[in-house]
Design goal:
The chain is of the alpha/beta class and 450 residues long. It has 15 helices and 20 strands.
Length: 450
Protein backbone atom coordinates (compact mmCIF):
# COMPACT_ATOMS: atom_id res chain seq x y z
CA UNK A 1 0.00 0.00 0.00
CA UNK A 2 1.01 3.66 -0.26
CA UNK A 3 3.03 5.08 2.63
CA UNK A 4 0.69 5.47 5.60
CA UNK A 5 2.28 6.06 9.00
CA UNK A 6 0.89 5.53 12.47
CA UNK A 7 1.09 9.28 13.03
CA UNK A 8 -1.02 9.92 9.89
CA UNK A 9 -3.53 7.29 10.96
CA UNK A 10 -3.89 8.71 14.48
CA UNK A 11 -4.39 12.20 13.04
CA UNK A 12 -6.93 10.99 10.46
CA UNK A 13 -9.20 9.44 13.09
CA UNK A 14 -8.45 11.87 15.96
CA UNK A 15 -7.15 8.89 17.92
CA UNK A 16 -4.87 8.87 20.94
CA UNK A 17 -1.50 7.35 20.14
CA UNK A 18 -0.39 5.18 23.06
CA UNK A 19 3.08 3.63 23.04
CA UNK A 20 6.64 4.22 21.93
CA UNK A 21 6.80 7.71 20.39
CA UNK A 22 9.80 6.72 18.28
CA UNK A 23 7.55 4.34 16.30
CA UNK A 24 5.04 7.01 15.21
CA UNK A 25 6.52 7.18 11.72
CA UNK A 26 6.26 3.41 11.21
CA UNK A 27 4.49 2.59 7.93
CA UNK A 28 1.78 -0.05 7.89
CA UNK A 29 1.59 -2.72 5.18
CA UNK A 30 -2.08 -3.67 5.50
CA UNK A 31 -5.22 -3.19 7.60
CA UNK A 32 -6.79 -6.37 9.00
CA UNK A 33 -9.93 -7.02 11.04
CA UNK A 34 -9.35 -10.80 11.27
CA UNK A 35 -6.48 -11.78 13.56
CA UNK A 36 -5.85 -14.81 11.32
CA UNK A 37 -5.01 -12.51 8.41
CA UNK A 38 -2.48 -10.36 10.28
CA UNK A 39 0.96 -10.23 8.71
CA UNK A 40 4.19 -8.37 9.18
CA UNK A 41 3.42 -4.66 9.38
CA UNK A 42 -0.38 -4.90 9.73
CA UNK A 43 -2.63 -2.46 11.53
CA UNK A 44 -5.10 -4.63 13.46
CA UNK A 45 -8.69 -3.39 13.88
CA UNK A 46 -10.01 -4.47 17.28
CA UNK A 47 -13.76 -4.62 16.65
CA UNK A 48 -16.25 -5.79 19.24
CA UNK A 49 -18.72 -8.12 17.52
CA UNK A 50 -21.78 -9.99 18.74
CA UNK A 51 -19.81 -13.16 19.51
CA UNK A 52 -16.14 -12.18 19.42
CA UNK A 53 -14.33 -9.13 20.75
CA UNK A 54 -11.27 -8.25 18.69
CA UNK A 55 -9.72 -6.59 21.74
CA UNK A 56 -9.07 -10.08 23.11
CA UNK A 57 -6.70 -10.76 20.19
CA UNK A 58 -4.55 -7.63 20.24
CA UNK A 59 -1.51 -9.19 21.92
CA UNK A 60 -1.79 -12.28 19.72
CA UNK A 61 -1.65 -9.98 16.68
CA UNK A 62 1.40 -8.21 18.08
CA UNK A 63 3.11 -11.60 18.33
CA UNK A 64 2.15 -12.18 14.67
CA UNK A 65 4.04 -8.97 13.73
CA UNK A 66 1.20 -6.45 13.66
CA UNK A 67 2.75 -3.03 14.26
CA UNK A 68 -0.24 -1.37 15.91
CA UNK A 69 -3.85 -1.90 16.99
CA UNK A 70 -6.74 0.48 16.42
CA UNK A 71 -8.89 -0.11 19.47
CA UNK A 72 -11.34 1.33 21.98
CA UNK A 73 -9.24 0.23 24.94
CA UNK A 74 -5.54 -0.60 24.91
CA UNK A 75 -4.37 -3.72 26.76
CA UNK A 76 -2.50 -3.08 30.00
CA UNK A 77 1.23 -2.96 29.33
CA UNK A 78 0.72 -3.35 25.58
CA UNK A 79 3.91 -4.51 23.89
CA UNK A 80 3.34 -2.34 20.79
CA UNK A 81 1.59 0.95 20.01
CA UNK A 82 -2.18 1.34 20.03
CA UNK A 83 -4.36 4.09 18.60
CA UNK A 84 -7.27 4.48 20.99
CA UNK A 85 -10.60 5.82 19.72
CA UNK A 86 -14.20 5.95 21.01
CA UNK A 87 -15.37 3.68 18.16
CA UNK A 88 -13.15 1.48 16.02
CA UNK A 89 -15.86 1.30 13.34
CA UNK A 90 -16.17 5.07 13.11
CA UNK A 91 -12.40 5.49 13.13
CA UNK A 92 -11.75 3.07 10.27
CA UNK A 93 -14.09 5.11 8.06
CA UNK A 94 -12.00 8.23 8.68
CA UNK A 95 -8.82 6.28 8.00
CA UNK A 96 -10.28 4.84 4.79
CA UNK A 97 -11.13 8.34 3.58
CA UNK A 98 -7.63 9.62 4.39
CA UNK A 99 -6.06 6.76 2.45
CA UNK A 100 -8.35 7.25 -0.56
CA UNK A 101 -7.21 10.89 -0.69
CA UNK A 102 -3.67 9.72 -1.39
CA UNK A 103 -4.85 8.58 -4.86
CA UNK A 104 -5.46 10.87 -7.81
CA UNK A 105 -7.08 8.22 -10.01
CA UNK A 106 -10.50 7.43 -11.52
CA UNK A 107 -12.70 6.02 -8.76
CA UNK A 108 -16.04 4.62 -9.92
CA UNK A 109 -18.67 4.49 -7.20
CA UNK A 110 -21.48 2.08 -8.04
CA UNK A 111 -24.83 1.40 -6.45
CA UNK A 112 -28.41 0.46 -7.30
CA UNK A 113 -31.17 -1.84 -6.11
CA UNK A 114 -30.31 -4.58 -8.60
CA UNK A 115 -27.21 -5.48 -10.55
CA UNK A 116 -24.60 -3.46 -8.69
CA UNK A 117 -22.28 -6.43 -8.14
CA UNK A 118 -22.53 -7.79 -11.69
CA UNK A 119 -22.10 -4.27 -13.07
CA UNK A 120 -19.11 -3.77 -10.76
CA UNK A 121 -17.56 -6.92 -12.18
CA UNK A 122 -18.29 -5.77 -15.74
CA UNK A 123 -16.72 -2.38 -15.03
CA UNK A 124 -13.69 -4.12 -13.57
CA UNK A 125 -13.37 -6.42 -16.61
CA UNK A 126 -13.52 -3.48 -19.02
CA UNK A 127 -11.32 -1.00 -17.15
CA UNK A 128 -8.70 -3.70 -16.53
CA UNK A 129 -7.98 -3.65 -20.26
CA UNK A 130 -6.30 -0.25 -19.81
CA UNK A 131 -5.68 0.28 -16.08
CA UNK A 132 -4.42 -1.69 -13.09
CA UNK A 133 -7.85 -1.77 -11.47
CA UNK A 134 -8.87 -2.38 -7.88
CA UNK A 135 -12.39 -3.55 -6.98
CA UNK A 136 -14.65 -4.43 -4.10
CA UNK A 137 -14.20 -8.06 -3.10
CA UNK A 138 -17.17 -10.24 -2.13
CA UNK A 139 -19.85 -8.33 -0.25
CA UNK A 140 -17.56 -5.69 1.29
CA UNK A 141 -19.92 -2.88 0.28
CA UNK A 142 -21.10 -1.58 3.67
CA UNK A 143 -19.75 0.85 6.27
CA UNK A 144 -16.98 -1.54 7.27
CA UNK A 145 -16.41 -3.19 3.91
CA UNK A 146 -15.96 0.05 1.95
CA UNK A 147 -13.11 1.44 4.09
CA UNK A 148 -11.46 -1.99 4.09
CA UNK A 149 -11.74 -2.02 0.29
CA UNK A 150 -10.17 1.42 0.05
CA UNK A 151 -7.41 0.51 2.51
CA UNK A 152 -6.51 -2.56 0.45
CA UNK A 153 -5.72 -0.51 -2.68
CA UNK A 154 -2.16 -1.32 -3.80
CA UNK A 155 0.24 1.55 -4.26
CA UNK A 156 0.20 1.18 -8.05
CA UNK A 157 -3.60 1.18 -8.46
CA UNK A 158 -4.62 3.17 -11.55
CA UNK A 159 -8.42 2.91 -11.24
CA UNK A 160 -10.89 1.61 -8.66
CA UNK A 161 -14.44 0.30 -8.80
CA UNK A 162 -16.11 0.57 -5.39
CA UNK A 163 -19.53 -0.95 -4.73
CA UNK A 164 -21.75 0.73 -2.15
CA UNK A 165 -24.75 -1.03 -0.61
CA UNK A 166 -27.26 0.65 1.69
CA UNK A 167 -30.50 -0.06 3.51
CA UNK A 168 -31.33 3.32 5.09
CA UNK A 169 -31.03 7.06 4.63
CA UNK A 170 -27.66 8.58 5.46
CA UNK A 171 -25.64 5.46 4.73
CA UNK A 172 -24.79 6.48 1.17
CA UNK A 173 -23.66 9.88 2.43
CA UNK A 174 -21.22 8.22 4.83
CA UNK A 175 -19.99 5.74 2.20
CA UNK A 176 -19.50 8.33 -0.51
CA UNK A 177 -17.65 10.63 1.89
CA UNK A 178 -14.99 7.92 1.93
CA UNK A 179 -15.13 6.93 -1.75
CA UNK A 180 -15.34 10.44 -3.26
CA UNK A 181 -16.19 9.01 -6.69
CA UNK A 182 -14.97 10.62 -9.89
CA UNK A 183 -17.66 8.65 -11.75
CA UNK A 184 -21.00 7.71 -10.18
CA UNK A 185 -22.91 4.74 -11.64
CA UNK A 186 -26.49 3.87 -10.64
CA UNK A 187 -28.12 0.74 -12.05
CA UNK A 188 -31.80 0.49 -11.05
CA UNK A 189 -34.10 2.07 -8.47
CA UNK A 190 -36.06 -0.97 -7.34
CA UNK A 191 -38.26 -2.21 -4.53
CA UNK A 192 -35.73 -3.03 -1.84
CA UNK A 193 -35.18 -2.10 1.81
CA UNK A 194 -38.64 -0.56 1.82
CA UNK A 195 -38.89 -1.13 5.57
CA UNK A 196 -36.58 1.86 5.96
CA UNK A 197 -36.85 3.70 2.65
CA UNK A 198 -40.64 3.59 2.27
CA UNK A 199 -41.03 3.48 -1.50
CA UNK A 200 -39.02 3.80 -4.71
CA UNK A 201 -38.87 7.57 -4.33
CA UNK A 202 -37.19 6.95 -0.99
CA UNK A 203 -34.80 4.51 -2.64
CA UNK A 204 -33.95 7.17 -5.27
CA UNK A 205 -33.34 9.78 -2.58
CA UNK A 206 -31.09 7.44 -0.59
CA UNK A 207 -29.06 6.21 -3.58
CA UNK A 208 -28.48 9.69 -5.01
CA UNK A 209 -26.94 10.85 -1.75
CA UNK A 210 -23.79 9.63 -3.53
CA UNK A 211 -23.81 12.69 -5.76
CA UNK A 212 -23.12 15.23 -3.04
CA UNK A 213 -19.73 13.69 -2.26
CA UNK A 214 -18.57 13.15 -5.84
CA UNK A 215 -15.30 14.83 -6.76
CA UNK A 216 -15.38 18.14 -8.61
CA UNK A 217 -16.11 17.61 -12.32
CA UNK A 218 -17.31 14.06 -11.66
CA UNK A 219 -19.34 12.23 -14.30
CA UNK A 220 -22.68 10.50 -13.69
CA UNK A 221 -23.73 7.34 -15.53
CA UNK A 222 -27.40 6.46 -14.97
CA UNK A 223 -29.81 3.83 -16.28
CA UNK A 224 -32.07 5.80 -18.60
CA UNK A 225 -34.54 2.91 -18.86
CA UNK A 226 -35.35 3.37 -15.16
CA UNK A 227 -38.35 5.66 -14.74
CA UNK A 228 -36.87 7.25 -11.61
CA UNK A 229 -33.29 7.75 -12.77
CA UNK A 230 -34.41 9.08 -16.15
CA UNK A 231 -35.92 12.10 -14.36
CA UNK A 232 -32.46 13.28 -13.27
CA UNK A 233 -31.68 16.09 -15.72
CA UNK A 234 -28.50 17.55 -14.24
CA UNK A 235 -26.21 16.65 -11.34
CA UNK A 236 -23.90 19.27 -9.90
CA UNK A 237 -24.46 21.27 -13.08
CA UNK A 238 -23.59 18.37 -15.39
CA UNK A 239 -25.85 16.33 -17.69
CA UNK A 240 -25.75 12.61 -16.85
CA UNK A 241 -24.73 9.98 -19.38
CA UNK A 242 -27.69 7.62 -19.79
CA UNK A 243 -27.44 3.95 -20.71
CA UNK A 244 -30.11 1.33 -21.38
CA UNK A 245 -31.71 -0.86 -24.01
CA UNK A 246 -33.92 1.94 -25.34
CA UNK A 247 -32.42 3.85 -28.28
CA UNK A 248 -33.24 7.16 -26.55
CA UNK A 249 -30.19 6.61 -24.31
CA UNK A 250 -26.66 7.89 -24.97
CA UNK A 251 -25.46 4.27 -24.83
CA UNK A 252 -27.97 1.70 -26.06
CA UNK A 253 -28.01 -1.79 -27.60
CA UNK A 254 -29.43 -3.58 -30.60
CA UNK A 255 -29.23 -7.07 -32.17
CA UNK A 256 -29.52 -8.75 -28.76
CA UNK A 257 -29.48 -12.56 -29.06
CA UNK A 258 -29.02 -15.49 -26.73
CA UNK A 259 -26.33 -17.61 -28.37
CA UNK A 260 -27.71 -20.84 -26.88
CA UNK A 261 -24.48 -21.70 -25.08
CA UNK A 262 -24.80 -19.42 -22.07
CA UNK A 263 -23.72 -16.25 -23.86
CA UNK A 264 -25.42 -13.10 -25.10
CA UNK A 265 -24.52 -11.33 -28.33
CA UNK A 266 -25.29 -7.64 -28.75
CA UNK A 267 -24.24 -4.47 -30.51
CA UNK A 268 -23.48 -1.53 -28.22
CA UNK A 269 -24.30 1.81 -29.83
CA UNK A 270 -23.14 5.34 -28.96
CA UNK A 271 -21.96 8.48 -30.78
CA UNK A 272 -22.81 6.95 -34.18
CA UNK A 273 -20.52 4.07 -33.28
CA UNK A 274 -21.25 0.32 -32.97
CA UNK A 275 -19.35 -2.31 -30.99
CA UNK A 276 -20.27 -5.99 -31.37
CA UNK A 277 -19.79 -7.79 -28.05
CA UNK A 278 -20.11 -11.31 -26.69
CA UNK A 279 -21.11 -11.48 -23.02
CA UNK A 280 -20.26 -14.76 -21.23
CA UNK A 281 -23.44 -14.72 -19.12
CA UNK A 282 -27.21 -15.00 -19.40
CA UNK A 283 -29.91 -12.40 -18.93
CA UNK A 284 -30.69 -9.37 -21.06
CA UNK A 285 -29.83 -7.18 -18.06
CA UNK A 286 -26.20 -8.18 -18.64
CA UNK A 287 -26.34 -6.13 -21.85
CA UNK A 288 -27.37 -3.17 -19.71
CA UNK A 289 -24.38 -3.81 -17.44
CA UNK A 290 -22.10 -3.89 -20.48
CA UNK A 291 -23.51 -0.53 -21.61
CA UNK A 292 -22.70 1.02 -18.23
CA UNK A 293 -19.16 -0.30 -18.49
CA UNK A 294 -18.82 0.94 -22.06
CA UNK A 295 -19.93 4.41 -20.96
CA UNK A 296 -17.32 4.47 -18.19
CA UNK A 297 -14.71 3.08 -20.55
CA UNK A 298 -15.34 5.80 -23.13
CA UNK A 299 -15.15 8.52 -20.48
CA UNK A 300 -11.76 7.11 -19.49
CA UNK A 301 -10.36 6.84 -23.00
CA UNK A 302 -10.65 3.13 -23.77
CA UNK A 303 -10.74 2.00 -27.37
CA UNK A 304 -13.65 0.04 -28.88
CA UNK A 305 -11.43 -3.04 -28.98
CA UNK A 306 -10.55 -2.70 -25.30
CA UNK A 307 -14.23 -2.39 -24.39
CA UNK A 308 -15.20 -5.47 -26.45
CA UNK A 309 -12.33 -7.49 -24.98
CA UNK A 310 -13.27 -6.39 -21.48
CA UNK A 311 -16.92 -7.38 -21.90
CA UNK A 312 -15.82 -10.78 -23.24
CA UNK A 313 -13.61 -11.33 -20.16
CA UNK A 314 -16.46 -10.80 -17.67
CA UNK A 315 -16.77 -13.48 -14.98
CA UNK A 316 -19.90 -14.31 -12.98
CA UNK A 317 -19.48 -13.97 -9.20
CA UNK A 318 -20.93 -16.53 -6.79
CA UNK A 319 -24.64 -17.32 -6.89
CA UNK A 320 -25.60 -14.55 -9.29
CA UNK A 321 -27.24 -15.88 -12.46
CA UNK A 322 -24.68 -18.66 -12.53
CA UNK A 323 -25.74 -21.32 -15.03
CA UNK A 324 -25.02 -24.89 -13.98
CA UNK A 325 -25.51 -27.58 -16.60
CA UNK A 326 -25.81 -30.93 -14.83
CA UNK A 327 -26.19 -32.91 -18.05
CA UNK A 328 -29.89 -33.43 -17.35
CA UNK A 329 -31.12 -29.96 -16.41
CA UNK A 330 -29.88 -26.37 -16.44
CA UNK A 331 -29.92 -24.59 -13.09
CA UNK A 332 -29.92 -20.79 -12.90
CA UNK A 333 -28.28 -20.36 -9.50
CA UNK A 334 -29.37 -16.83 -8.57
CA UNK A 335 -29.90 -17.35 -4.86
CA UNK A 336 -27.54 -14.68 -3.56
CA UNK A 337 -30.40 -12.27 -2.85
CA UNK A 338 -33.83 -11.22 -4.05
CA UNK A 339 -36.29 -8.35 -4.27
CA UNK A 340 -39.25 -7.91 -6.63
CA UNK A 341 -37.18 -6.06 -9.24
CA UNK A 342 -34.41 -8.67 -9.36
CA UNK A 343 -36.86 -11.59 -9.35
CA UNK A 344 -38.72 -10.12 -12.33
CA UNK A 345 -35.41 -9.72 -14.17
CA UNK A 346 -34.55 -13.36 -13.43
CA UNK A 347 -37.98 -14.50 -14.61
CA UNK A 348 -37.40 -12.57 -17.84
CA UNK A 349 -34.14 -14.43 -18.30
CA UNK A 350 -35.79 -17.78 -17.58
CA UNK A 351 -38.61 -17.11 -20.04
CA UNK A 352 -36.12 -16.46 -22.86
CA UNK A 353 -34.33 -19.80 -22.50
CA UNK A 354 -35.19 -23.02 -24.33
CA UNK A 355 -36.74 -25.88 -22.38
CA UNK A 356 -39.57 -26.37 -19.90
CA UNK A 357 -39.29 -23.70 -17.24
CA UNK A 358 -39.48 -24.15 -13.46
CA UNK A 359 -39.03 -21.38 -10.89
CA UNK A 360 -38.22 -22.25 -7.28
CA UNK A 361 -38.70 -18.99 -5.38
CA UNK A 362 -38.59 -17.96 -1.74
CA UNK A 363 -39.26 -15.12 0.66
CA UNK A 364 -38.03 -11.64 -0.27
CA UNK A 365 -37.08 -9.80 2.91
CA UNK A 366 -37.17 -6.15 4.05
CA UNK A 367 -40.09 -5.08 1.88
CA UNK A 368 -42.07 -3.24 4.56
CA UNK A 369 -45.83 -3.01 4.94
CA UNK A 370 -46.52 -3.92 1.29
CA UNK A 371 -44.56 -7.18 1.48
CA UNK A 372 -47.51 -9.51 0.91
CA UNK A 373 -48.79 -7.55 -2.09
CA UNK A 374 -45.29 -7.35 -3.57
CA UNK A 375 -44.95 -11.14 -3.29
CA UNK A 376 -48.38 -11.70 -4.86
CA UNK A 377 -47.64 -9.29 -7.72
CA UNK A 378 -44.34 -11.07 -8.37
CA UNK A 379 -46.26 -14.32 -8.67
CA UNK A 380 -48.67 -12.72 -11.14
CA UNK A 381 -45.64 -11.59 -13.16
CA UNK A 382 -44.26 -15.14 -13.18
CA UNK A 383 -47.58 -16.39 -14.50
CA UNK A 384 -47.55 -13.73 -17.23
CA UNK A 385 -44.15 -14.99 -18.42
CA UNK A 386 -45.54 -18.49 -19.02
CA UNK A 387 -43.30 -20.11 -16.42
CA UNK A 388 -44.53 -23.72 -16.44
CA UNK A 389 -44.22 -24.45 -12.73
CA UNK A 390 -43.63 -22.23 -9.70
CA UNK A 391 -42.64 -23.79 -6.37
CA UNK A 392 -42.21 -21.52 -3.35
CA UNK A 393 -40.66 -21.88 0.10
CA UNK A 394 -41.41 -19.60 3.04
CA UNK A 395 -44.31 -17.83 4.70
CA UNK A 396 -44.18 -14.68 2.55
CA UNK A 397 -43.68 -16.66 -0.65
CA UNK A 398 -47.07 -18.33 -0.13
CA UNK A 399 -48.52 -15.11 -1.57
CA UNK A 400 -46.18 -15.42 -4.54
CA UNK A 401 -47.44 -18.94 -5.11
CA UNK A 402 -51.03 -17.66 -5.05
CA UNK A 403 -50.27 -15.07 -7.71
CA UNK A 404 -48.52 -17.64 -9.89
CA UNK A 405 -50.95 -20.53 -9.29
CA UNK A 406 -47.94 -22.36 -7.90
CA UNK A 407 -47.31 -24.74 -5.02
CA UNK A 408 -46.18 -23.41 -1.64
CA UNK A 409 -44.16 -25.08 1.11
CA UNK A 410 -43.03 -23.98 4.55
CA UNK A 411 -39.47 -25.30 4.40
CA UNK A 412 -36.90 -26.53 1.91
CA UNK A 413 -37.26 -30.06 3.31
CA UNK A 414 -41.01 -29.91 2.75
CA UNK A 415 -40.47 -28.85 -0.87
CA UNK A 416 -37.93 -31.51 -1.81
CA UNK A 417 -40.43 -34.30 -2.69
CA UNK A 418 -42.35 -31.91 -4.96
CA UNK A 419 -39.10 -30.81 -6.62
CA UNK A 420 -38.16 -34.44 -7.31
CA UNK A 421 -41.62 -35.20 -8.68
CA UNK A 422 -41.86 -32.07 -10.84
CA UNK A 423 -38.49 -31.61 -12.52
CA UNK A 424 -37.72 -33.59 -15.65
CA UNK A 425 -34.71 -33.98 -17.91
CA UNK A 426 -34.31 -30.95 -20.17
CA UNK A 427 -35.86 -28.48 -17.71
CA UNK A 428 -34.39 -25.05 -16.95
CA UNK A 429 -34.75 -24.29 -13.24
CA UNK A 430 -34.43 -20.85 -11.64
CA UNK A 431 -33.52 -20.83 -7.93
CA UNK A 432 -33.91 -17.45 -6.24
CA UNK A 433 -34.74 -16.00 -2.80
CA UNK A 434 -33.33 -13.67 -0.19
CA UNK A 435 -29.97 -14.90 1.07
CA UNK A 436 -31.31 -15.76 4.53
CA UNK A 437 -33.54 -18.43 2.96
CA UNK A 438 -30.40 -20.53 2.29
CA UNK A 439 -31.51 -21.55 -1.20
CA UNK A 440 -27.95 -22.65 -1.98
CA UNK A 441 -29.14 -25.88 -0.31
CA UNK A 442 -31.74 -26.27 -3.07
CA UNK A 443 -29.03 -25.79 -5.71
CA UNK A 444 -26.95 -28.54 -4.11
CA UNK A 445 -30.03 -30.79 -3.90
CA UNK A 446 -30.69 -30.31 -7.62
CA UNK A 447 -27.09 -31.02 -8.53
CA UNK A 448 -27.11 -34.23 -6.48
CA UNK A 449 -30.38 -35.52 -7.91
CA UNK A 450 -30.26 -34.37 -11.51
Amino acid sequence: MKDFTLAEIAKACNGEYVGDESLKNTKITSVERDSRQVKNGSLFLAIKGERVDGHDFIEKCFVQSAVCALCEKAPENATKPCIVVPSTLDAVKKIGRAYREKFDIPVIGISGSVGKTSTKEMLYAVLSQKFKTHKTQGNLNNELGVPLTLLSMPEDTEAAVIEMGISDFGEMTRLSEMVQPTICVLTIIGECHLENLGDRDGVLKAKTEMFKNARENADFILNGDDDKLSTVKTVNGKKPVFFGLDAKNDFYAKNIKNSGDGKILATLCFDNNNIDVEIPAIGTYMVTNALAAAAAGKLLGLTDEEIANGVASYKTVGSRANVINTGKIKIIDDCYNANPTSVRASLDTLSNLDGRKVAILGDMKELGIEELKLHFDTGVYAKSKDIGTVITVGELAKELAKGADGKAFDTIEDAKPEILKTIKSGDVVLVKASHSMQFENIVEFLKQNF
